[in-house]
Amino acid sequence: MPHPFIVPAIPVPANPALRLALQQAIDNKTKPRGALGRLEFLALQLGLIQDSPTPRLVAPQIRVFAADHGLNRHGVSAYPSVVTAQMVHNFLQGGAAINVFARQHQLALKVVDAGVDADFAPHPDLLDCKIRRGTRDTLHQAAMTDAECHAALRRGMELARDMAGNLLIVGEMGIGNTSAASLLLARLGDLPIEDCTGRGTGLDDPALARKRRVLAQVLARHAGAQSPFDALAALGGLEIAMMAGALIMAASQRRVLLMDGFIAGVALLVAERLAPGVRRFAVFAHRSAEPGHGHLLRLLEAEPLLALDLRLGEGSGAALAYPLLQSACAFLDEMASFADAGIGARG
């Protein structure tokens, strides 16, 4: 069915005159052409995203979206669903990896309750956007009703619309959400579920085989859910849907989307299919150890900045890559040109 919510227009970051000016500025720095490698392309990309010859990173934001998954009752994760709520408390107490990296790099962090199967006391760093207490068991029914899926997408869009800054990192927490991401990748990418499914939080070989069997059954159960919206509602997660909405809105506002790993990347795939052009605003931080991420990167024609065998989620890989974006902006702004330094350029 067509999605009735209004998708904002996605601009095209392709100003030919600006591209030429940025490339000339990069080439005229006091270095051999191309000597800063992919950092040079990153500077060009940031300038085009911001439509500016002097890109700046202002008030960067992290939003960690949390939700539970009904499918987890079938043993698709090494952890019980109660850990989702426990990790939300850990985020709010400042004790998770993403908290450490956010403090280190001065990234503003908020946690979004998209659909955790628990209630939380008010907290200044918690945004209560709960649609329902976890998705339904997708082995037997759709994860979300159409209305719930629309609500999650719209809420994500509203969060991004009202956010400070010009850079967004979306992270996630939800026991069982690698299964939802694998299902969406298999359906939207027309890939075998075996190629999209990994160990998640650390499944052993028998548990991984069981996870793959369960996910194959889920895909068969929802064989008719083929469109991006229908697949999201049938197979996805509340946090994935809300991230997709946030990414759509952020791209429409020309924000930099600094993408984390597998699950955040699947949210971007959903966003791109719902609002073509979103991925042009994405900088891909790292290549996850989750096997489906390689297939996802190929689908999105993406080359990540780092390869550290990360598989944590939370936005942690994106936070680690953030200093590279700072360096790209800094060399473009501060590095002397050959003319500035009185050095003869290459003939």
From TrEMBL:
Name of the top EC class for this enzyme: transferase
Superkingdom classification of source: Bacteria
InterPro entries: Nict_dMeBzImd_PRibTrfase, Nict_dMeBzImd_PRibTrfase_bact, Nict_dMeBzImd_PRibTrfase_N, Nict_dMeBzImd_PRibTrfase_sf
Keywords: Cobalamin biosynthesis, Glycosyltransferase, Transferase
A Gene Ontology BP annotation from the UniProt entry: cobalamin biosynthetic process
Metabolic or biological pathway, per its Swiss-Prot or TrEMBL entry: Nucleoside biosynthesis; alpha-ribazole biosynthesis; alpha-ribazole from 5,6-dimethylbenzimidazole: step 1/2
Catalytic activity annotation: 5,6-dimethylbenzimidazole + nicotinate beta-D-ribonucleotide = alpha-ribazole 5'-phosphate + nicotinate + H(+)
Assigned EC number: 2.4.2.21
Glycosyltransferase listed as a keyword: yes
Coiled coil: none
Pfam families: DBI_PRT
Entry's Gene Ontology molecular function annotations: nicotinate-nucleotide-dimethylbenzimidazole phosphoribosyltransferase activity
Residues of the active site: E314
Function per UniProt: Catalyzes the synthesis of alpha-ribazole-5'-phosphate from nicotinate mononucleotide (NAMN) and 5,6-dimethylbenzimidazole (DMB).
Record-stated family: Belongs to the CobT family.
This protein's name: Nicotinate-nucleotide--dimethylbenzimidazole phosphoribosyltransferase
Native source organism of the sequence: Zobellella endophytica
